[in-house]
Amino acid sequence: MTEARIAERMDPHVQTQIMEAPSQTPERIGKYYVVHEVGRGSTGTVYLSHDPFYGRDVAIKFYHATGSDDAEGRNALERYEQSRGLERAISLFNRALEQDPRYALAHAGLGEAYWRLYQNEKNPELVPLAERHCERALALDDLFGRAWVTLGMIHAGTGRAEAALADFQKALDRDPRDAGAVLRR
Description:
- The protein has 185 residues and is an alpha+beta fold.
- The chain has two domains: 3-63, no CATH class; 69-184, Serine Threonine Protein Phosphatase 5, Tetratricopeptide repeat (Alpha Horseshoe), CATH 1.25.40.10.
- The chain has eight helices and four strands.
- A hairpin with a 2-residue loop joins strand 1 (28-29) and strand 2.
């Protein structure tokens, strides 16, 4: 049962809408009337909306639909010791970027996949690809700590220790619980 159906069963007055990522500002999201778009990020769009029941304004984050390519890419990336899995992750992240070229999570995933593949195969052409995708992810959303961790790994692995420490610190500043940044710092 979808979350929308669960919400309808819990509150029969709630109207839900299942939508693809809107190309323009929707009039409503569920029971909320959309006032205007507040901003867009790598994972979704935030709208200032009005709750007519409570008579108050709320912020609603509407996550972008990216399909399963990103999730499958993340799963393939977990098996980073296998070059074949990394090549699959690269293919899946690239497919996600075909759907949304501004998808920071996919750029970060590509950065990590290219770096891990470099570590396995020692092909120096992969390093600039890894670095470029991390930088693109951060240009789209510099609050995304995982991209800072990967950039730190790249900088550490290419002899740029000062830059690596700064990257890991930026990751911790954004998410103090990020074990990847803590372990590498």
